[in-house]
Design goal:
Keywords: Cell membrane, Disulfide bond, Glycoprotein, Membrane, Receptor, Signal, Transmembrane, Transmembrane helix, Transport. By secondary structure, this protein is mainly alpha-helical. 71% of the residues lie in helices and 0% in strands. It has two domains: 102 residues, Orthogonal Bundle (DNA polymerase, domain 1), CATH 1.10.150; 36 residues. Helix 1 packs antiparallel against helix 5 and helix 2 runs antiparallel to helix 3. The longest helix is centred in the C-terminal third of the chain and has 32 residues. The structure holds 2-acetamido-2-deoxy-beta-D-glucopyranose (NAG) (3 copies). One 2-acetamido-2-deoxy-beta-D-glucopyranose binds next to helix 3.
Length: 150
């Protein structure tokens, strides 16, 4: 019984953390300069792909959802490569800029997104980040506690 109690926080929480954020970057290892240097590659690749799509289809998400997913994935991968969390406000700002570039003329009923106002956007970005930090803190706290029990 007792063994199981101890086993759970030590192994389950880091596992959960890994599931939550895949290749979790090291805390404090984020180089924002490098991130901002790398993200335009994703934007350029997305722009290249979008130019193979007829301009009048640019508001039809289904026509290029694959490209969009690949773009999102690219920002996530590049952000993690330089040790930053994804999403983060800087990366989100970059993605919003891409949205403006391609979807500024799309109305809400044509495309199913429009940049939400900041009051909506900021919690959307901040909450997952806080959650990740809280989870990491919990793991440290739990392992310290487990250490005291031993
Ligand atoms: C961040 O990246 C830039 C550009 O690659 C580099 O010049 C700088 O030294 C890096 N900063 C840190 C703290 O690694
Ligand atoms: C995201 O991109 C990476 C690197 O290009 C790739 O290995 C991975 O399979 C991609 N993930 C998705 C969900 O497309
Ligand atoms: C949006 O419309 C303006 C004016 O018609 C045009 O100049 C611009 O190129 C359009 N932008 C996009 C992304 O379609």
């Amino acid at each position: 019984m007792e063994t199981r109690e101890r086993w759970r926080p030590r192994f389950l929480l880091p596992l959960l953390l890994q599931l939550l954020c895949g290749g979790c970057p090291r805390v404090g290892g984020c180089n924002e300069t490098r991130m901002l240097e790398k993200l335009p590659q994703c934007g350029q690749a997305f722009a290249d792909m979008m130019h193979t799509v007829d301009v009048w289809k640019w508001c039809h998400l289904s026509e290029f959802i694959v490209y969009y997913q690949s773009f999102t994935n690219c920002t996530e991968v590049e952000t993690n490569v330089v040790g930053c969390y994804w999403p983060n406000p800087l990366a989100q700002g970059f993605i919003t800029g891409i949205h403006r570039q391609f979807f500024s003329n799309c109305t809400v009923d044509k495309a199913h997104w429009e940049d939400p106002p900041d009051e909506v956007l900021i919690p959307l970005i901040v909450v997952p980040v806080l959650l990740t930090v809280a989870m990491a803190g919990l793991v440290v706290w739990r392992s310290k506690r487990a250490g005291q029990l031993l």
